[in-house]
């Protein structure tokens, strides 16, 4: 493997790197050496993950070597000063005091090796990163991967549960009661063999599960053991951004290097991790659960049930009947208070300042003083409802009470710092949030449940949703830095424009990079097709996209490109309603049949299970030698556009049929735009309209990234909306294709050039 000298650090790389890979690693090392945050964009297919891992681990390796030299020098100095022969022992005691002494960070810094926390959006993306690490010369570093019980739990009863929340609660119940033999085997396992020795150094979720099944030991808690001595920890975003998840999984931030890979969605994820929606149904469900819990506890305390029966059935609640009655009263009062909030008849909802959430909760005696005891009781009740026997009380399995607990954990996630006045702390938090109370159109099947379970089932009862929305991702970023994080690196294939992206994060990013691609210009074709084959303008704006003329012209456009594009064709729509409306029209005419004659069509579904089936069907069609590939019709921001690999023949062309703007009249979108306008100075000039346009731009660029997956790949990018022809749209395209964009007012010329492109590309 080539050994590179980059910024004075020796980096082992699996092959001779491209210039853009060296540039990328240089920026990573600059961040780490100068302790500066970085935002680094490098297109999909440029070896971003490999470069990121090699550079960061090479720096960590050099840091370890320097720390050892510092330690040896320290031992020598201590020996010389003390005249004793136990310099190493004295040095260890000195280091211990430096690490614990207040204000002594300057002294311990030279003896400290930061841990690397590598976060990505999904477990599958993390798995890909671990596989990349295994192929490098750094495969001897100690790693750990933190996963959910959904991925790691092997207990048959827990695995059968549908929701992850239910799995969490049942697992906790079994562990607390020592009723999980996999968890109980952990101590014996650790006595027989060190967890790291049994696993190996670089491990994936599948590796941990395999060892757990073989030894009948809990993989979930094995993973937590591995974290303690790991040099690099892999984990999903939400485990890092959510303070309660960090605490649950024991994620220590002090002095760490945090890398957010696939960070193009980080803005949204930061906001969502600090937000919640609490509906009338959620409240009604929680109230019903307290009713059933009270009945169960009353039954258990009756003279008819022997104590031995309670112990045998393992239903020993850690709360009292009075606790349940108090909680029910609190929930009923909260429901009544929300019903009394006035909402104008001309509006669907009412927006209030962020600190209004504390006023609402204080009305029902939930505050910074009472919240710890309440949260403890809520967690214990949810665990009880997920117990083998307790779950029989109600099929909701504590979903309502659990939702109340989750909401309160978000509101009270950041404790006031020492000496800070409570009102000042709440005011500071509220700057990033809005409270929105909305009247709902309730599904009739839920309406019956709400009426049956709530305190007031009168005909004039209002169905409400209480929303607490965060509009500043910088709120979460600042929280990470406040916990002592050393460096934050954000990276993805689609972060541009970097200026607005960094403004939203509200922390400095001195190190920035927009990388070119590793491919040659002849490997990609990009054109904006303004008109269909019938001469109709292709424009998917809200006024035009529902017209029959537009849908027919788009259908004819897809038909023509399906005929000339070899193998796989990906067609992205702005949203599900737009895609479904087009397909419905095409199926009532003969257009769907004509498109399918050239290539079979797979449509992206919304459900997780159905999506897996759709992907399998697409690859099956692609591997059928009797077919000319297949078409995958999908939506921007959907699963197909986000992280799936359509390398080589699987994705020879991407068609984008419109600009995927967020729904303009959605209250949350409107409030986000208002928030940016009101705080324009704080966000250094970023306004709501700019943000709104860039949401569409980034979604388009992410979909475009499906077409080129490695340095030998080639493909066409066909933008089928006249709005892509504007100078502003061109500037918003990824750097690596920006200068190759052509605009076609004549459909025939576009078809001609696509045919020529594929003929030339296939020759090479």
UniProtKB/TrEMBL annotation:
Its main location: nucleus. SMART domains: DEXDc2, HELICc2. SUPFAM superfamilies: P-loop containing nucleoside triphosphate hydrolases. It is found in: Nucleus. The keyword Iron applies. GO terms for cellular component: nucleus. The keyword Cytoplasm does not apply. Residues 7-314 form the Helicase ATP-binding domain. Keywords: 4Fe-4S, ATP-binding, DNA damage, DNA repair, DNA-binding, Helicase, Hydrolase, Iron, Iron-sulfur, Isomerase, Metal-binding, Nucleotide-binding, Nucleus. This is Regulator of telomere elongation helicase 1 homolog. It comes from Plakobranchus ocellatus.
């Amino acid at each position: 493997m080539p050994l590179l000298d980059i910024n004075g650090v020796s980096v082992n790389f699996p092959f001779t790197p491209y210039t853009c890979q060296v540039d990328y690693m240089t920026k990573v090392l600059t961040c780490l050496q100068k302790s500066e945050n970085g935002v680094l964009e490098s297109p999909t297919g440029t070896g971003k993950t490999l470069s990121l891992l090699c550079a960061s681990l090479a720096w960590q390796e050099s840091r370890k070597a320097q720390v050892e030299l510092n330690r040896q020098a320290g031992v020598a100095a201590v020996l010389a000063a003390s005249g004793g022969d136990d310099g190493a022992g004295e040095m260890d005691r000195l280091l211990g005091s430096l690490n614990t002494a207040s204000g002594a960070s300057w002294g311990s810094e030279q003896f400290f090796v930061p841990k690397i926390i590598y976060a990505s959006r999904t477990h599958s993306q993390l798995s890909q990163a671990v596989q990349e690490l295994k192929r490098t010369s750094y495969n001897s570093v100690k790693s750990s991967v933190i996963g959910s019980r959904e991925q790691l739990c092997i207990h048959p009863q827990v695995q059968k549960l549908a929701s992850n929340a239910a799995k969490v609660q049942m697992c906790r119940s079994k562990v607390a009661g020592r009723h999980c033999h996999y968890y109980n085997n952990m101590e014996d396992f650790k006595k027989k063999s060190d967890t790291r020795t049994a696993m190996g150094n670089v491990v994936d979720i599948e590796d941990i599960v395999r060892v757990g099944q073989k030894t009948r030991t809990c993989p979930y808690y094995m993973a937590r053991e591995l974290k303690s001595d790991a040099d690099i920890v892999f984990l999903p975003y939400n485990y890092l951004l959510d303070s309660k998840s960090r605490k649950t999984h024991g994620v220590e931030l002090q002095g760490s290097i945090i890398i957010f890979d696939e960070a193009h969605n980080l803005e949204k994820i930061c906001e969502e991790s600090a937000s919640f929606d609490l509906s009338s149904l959620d409240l009604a469900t929680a109230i019903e659960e307290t009713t059933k819990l009270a009945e169960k506890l009353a039954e258990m305390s009756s003279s008819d049930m022997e104590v031995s029966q309670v112990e045998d059935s393992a239903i020993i609640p850690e709360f009292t009947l009075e606790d349940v009655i108090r909680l029910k009263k609190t929930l009923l009062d909260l429901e009544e208070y929300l019903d009394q909030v006035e909402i104008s008849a001309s509006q669907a909802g009412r927006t209030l300042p962020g600190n209004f959430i504390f006023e609402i909760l204080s009305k029902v005696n939930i505050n910074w003083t009472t919240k710890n005891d309440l949260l403890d009781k809520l967690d214990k009740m949810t665990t009880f409802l997920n117990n083998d026997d307790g779950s029989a009380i109600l099929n909701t399995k504590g979903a309502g009470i659990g939702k109340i607990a989750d909401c309160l954990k978000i509101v009270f996630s950041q404790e006031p710092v020492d000496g800070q006045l409570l009102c000042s702390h709440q005011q500071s938090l509220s700057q990033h949030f809005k409270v929105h109370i909305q009247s709902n159109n309730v599904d009739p099947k839920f309406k019956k449940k709400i009426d049956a379970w709530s305190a007031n089932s009168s005909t004039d009862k209002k169905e409400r949703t209480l929303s607490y929305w965060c509009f500043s991702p910088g709120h979460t970023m600042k929280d990470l830095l406040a916990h002592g994080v050393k460096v934050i690196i954000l990276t993805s294939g689609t972060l541009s424009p970097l200026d607005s992206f960094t403004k939203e994060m509200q922390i400095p990013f001195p190190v920035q990079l927009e990388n070119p691609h590793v491919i040659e210009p002849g490997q990609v074709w990009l054109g904006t097709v303004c008109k269909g084959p019938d001469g109709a303008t292709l424009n998917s704006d809200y006024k035009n996209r529902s017209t029959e003329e537009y849908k027919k012209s788009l259908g004819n456009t897809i038909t023509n490109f399906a005929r000339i594009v070899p193998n796989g064709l990906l067609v992205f729509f702005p949203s599900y309603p737009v895609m479904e409306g087009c397909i419905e029209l095409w199926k009532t005419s003969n257009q769907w049949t004509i498109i399918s004659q050239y290539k079979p069509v797979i449509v992206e579904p919304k459900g997780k299970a159905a999506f897996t089936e759709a992907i399998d069907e697409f690859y099956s069609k692609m591997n059928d030698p009797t077919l000319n590939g297949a078409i995958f019709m999908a939506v921007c921001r959907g699963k197909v556009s986000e992280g799936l690999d359509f390398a080589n023949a699987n994705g020879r062309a991407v068609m984008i049929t419109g600009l995927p703007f967020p729904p303009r009249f959605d209250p949350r979108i409107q409030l986000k735009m208002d928030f940016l306008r009101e705080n324009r100075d704080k966000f250094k000039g970023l306004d709501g309209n700019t943000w709104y346009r860039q949401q569409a731009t980034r979604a388009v660029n992410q979909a475009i990234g499906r077409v080129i997956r490695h340095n030998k790949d080639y493909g066409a990018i066909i933008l089928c909306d006249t709005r892509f022809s504007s100078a502003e749209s061109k500037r918003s395209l990824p750097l690596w294709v920006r200068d190759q964009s052509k605009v076609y007012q004549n459909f025939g010329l576009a078809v001609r050039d696509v045919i020529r492109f594929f003929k030339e590309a296939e020759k090479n």
